[in-house]
Amino acid sequence: MIITIGGLAGSGTTTAADVLSKKIDIPFISAGSIFRDMAKEKEMSLIEFSKYAEDNTAIDIELDKRQSEIAKNSENLIVEGRLSAYFVEADLRIWLLAPLDIRAKRVSNRESKSLEVVIEETIIREESEALRYLDIHNIDINNFDIYDLVLNTNRFNPDSIAEIILTTLKVI
């Protein structure tokens, strides 16, 4: 079984993928870890590589290709990444969302930054990414038609989110 989990920063994708992976005993990969591997390959820091990727669409395309290839060679896998559902043949495609203020609080706690700074950075990042996804892949990140399950993580803890996903798996 191949499952994709996507969502904006702070929506809980990595945590959900990790908890679900442990509950059903299948591995997960994240687009973020693949991106970090690509930075190491170029002998760049993550910040340097991120700046490099902003002006180099080949990085996004390679990231998407690597996710797809890993999934093709896997029988059971959870693939976590914003655009994974578009590039991975999946049995279940999930999109997690949460209000900006909730996501910003999560990121603020995770990165030890002020809430105000995180909100500002998040808005800028999301606007930039939305334009990039549309330009590079013709993907509207705000269109959820491709997803089998769209879940607002605001009121659920990670175990509850995993249970909702498990319940969904039973009916597909």
Automatic annotation (TrEMBL):
Keyword Phosphoprotein (UniProt): no
Subcellular location: Cytoplasm
Residue sites binding ATP per the record: G7, L8, A9, G10, S11, G12, T13, T14, T15
UniProt GO BP: pyrimidine nucleotide metabolic process
Molecular-function GO term, any one: ATP binding
Enzyme nomenclature, EC number: 2.7.4.25
Presence of the UniProt keyword Chaperone in the record: no
Domain of life: Archaea
Catalytic activity field: dCMP + ATP = dCDP + ADP; CMP + ATP = CDP + ADP
Keywords carried by this UniProt record: ATP-binding, Cytoplasm, Kinase, Nucleotide-binding, Transferase
A GO CC annotation given for this chain: cytoplasm
UniProt-listed InterPro entries: Cyt_kin_arch, Cytidylate_kinase_dom, P-loop_NTPase
CDD domains: CMPK
Matching Gene3D superfamilies: P-loop containing nucleotide triphosphate hydrolases
Family of the protein in this entry: Belongs to the cytidylate kinase family. Type 2 subfamily.
Protein name per UniProt: Cytidylate kinase
